[in-house]
Amino acid sequence: MNEMYSIEGKVAVVTGAAGVLGGSIASHFASQGANVVALVHRPEQVETVLEKLKALGGDPACYACSVMDTEVLAGIAEEVVAKYGKIDTLVNVAGGNVAGANVMPDQNFWDMKLEDWDKVLDLNLNGTVYPCHVFSKIFARQGFGNILNISSMAAYDALSRVAGYGAAKTGVSNFTKWLAAEMAMKYGEKIRVNALAPGFFIGKQNRAALLNEDGSLTERSVKVINKTPMRRFGDITELNGAAQFLCSDAASFITGVILPVDGGFSSFSGI
Q1: CATH number for the domain including 133?
Q2: What is the pTM of this model?
């Protein structure tokens, strides 16, 4: 591989590493020789995730913690620096939707549960801001570092149903741009902050919304495909190359970018 794009030897902290997207990025980074520090939510996930990463490459580590617990995160950050001597990258993948913060076609706005609105903002927006708050201190101290957040197509346009999730991911996009400028202007050009905005990928959370029980497309997924010029859903592994690029030296002059990986969904009006 061209050395510019290599992440071999880089120390990459990945939150949400037991999930589908976080697990895919963590596994890919390990296979490319990065030392992946996987953060998972439950203690019983640690051994499984760690063994998987060990089989792929690098010198991985795994910790169970809440991304909302800044004291624990700070302790982990210092342990990681003590073990590897540095941290190159933070990939914030922890997140997801909360059903009660949706407004379905047979509901109205007042049916939405405000406590679930709070949960989805915590999970996605604060679940991104809090780790950034902790690990950016390490980056400022060492003079380099890279943050990669996860936004969404729901941050580009107001998608029906996902009221809370869309608001949270819009916050992630805006915060990513703000933090990119903040870190570069105050702590130097070698600290970068970007985000990926995945298009439509079929996973556990959205399978029922996009596929009928017989595997055919739902009414909603037909609309998605019709607005996607590539005329298909993405495969979760198709995010890995974009993630690696933004975390590599090849992206050394890129900061504050929200990169869509969406088969053209965000650039096509549908007509």
Answers
A1: 3.40.50.720
A2: 0.95
